[in-house]
Write a structure and sequence with these properties.
Blueprint lengths: L2 H18 L3 E2 L2 E9 L6 E7 L1 E2 L5 E4 L10 H8 L5 E4 L2 E9 L2 H14 L2 H8 L6 E6 L8
Antiparallel strand pairs: 1-2, 2-3, 2-6, 4-5, 5-8, 6-7, 7-8
Length: 145
């Protein structure tokens, strides 16, 4: 399936399906991540699994379901780190993003794989490291429409 078709057709259908299903996928909770396209400048919303970080924010994994490349939203965040929003339980807002490394990444990975064991298998299916990002709510900054 051409990547453009996924962005235009499949992703919006997935968002609707997940919203109707209680914002869950395979028993894990989702958030709707909105980023600004690295090249296009267009806002894009993608459902991603979320894991509470224990500090009021969330952890997400740039796995792309074990693909050889990082997902597009990861590149969008790298290009526009100040233009990232998350929606959880119908509440949208701007988030700060930090990529975890070292011990913090290892602790987060253990937390994630304890709740979603399928992620463990991804590391044997791709040669790239799977980035783990911590999202923290930014106060007083509403999400785009």
């Amino acid at each position: 399936m051409p990547p453009g078709l996924v962005k235009r057709v499949v992703t919006p259908l997935m968002v609707r399906m997940h919203r109707r299903g209680g914002d869950q996928f395979r028993g894990n909770e989702l958030l709707y991540l909105t980023t600004v396209g690295a090249r296009s400048g267009t806002r894009r919303t993608t459902p991603v699994m979320r894991f509470d970080d224990g500090q009021g924010g969330w952890l997400i994994v740039a796995s792309a379901a074990d693909a050889a490349r990082h997902p597009g939203w990861y590149h969008n965040i790298a290009a526009h780190p100040d233009q990232v929003w998350a929606e959880v339980a119908g509440v949208r807002g701007r988030v700060a993003v930090e990529q975890l490394n070292g011990d913090a990444r290892e602790r987060a990975w253990a937390h994630i794989t304890a709740r979603a064991p399928d992620f463990s298998a991804y590391t044997s299916k791709t040669d790239r490291p799977l980035p783990i990002l911590q999202l923290t709510r930014s106060a007083g900054d509403p999400a785009p429409d």
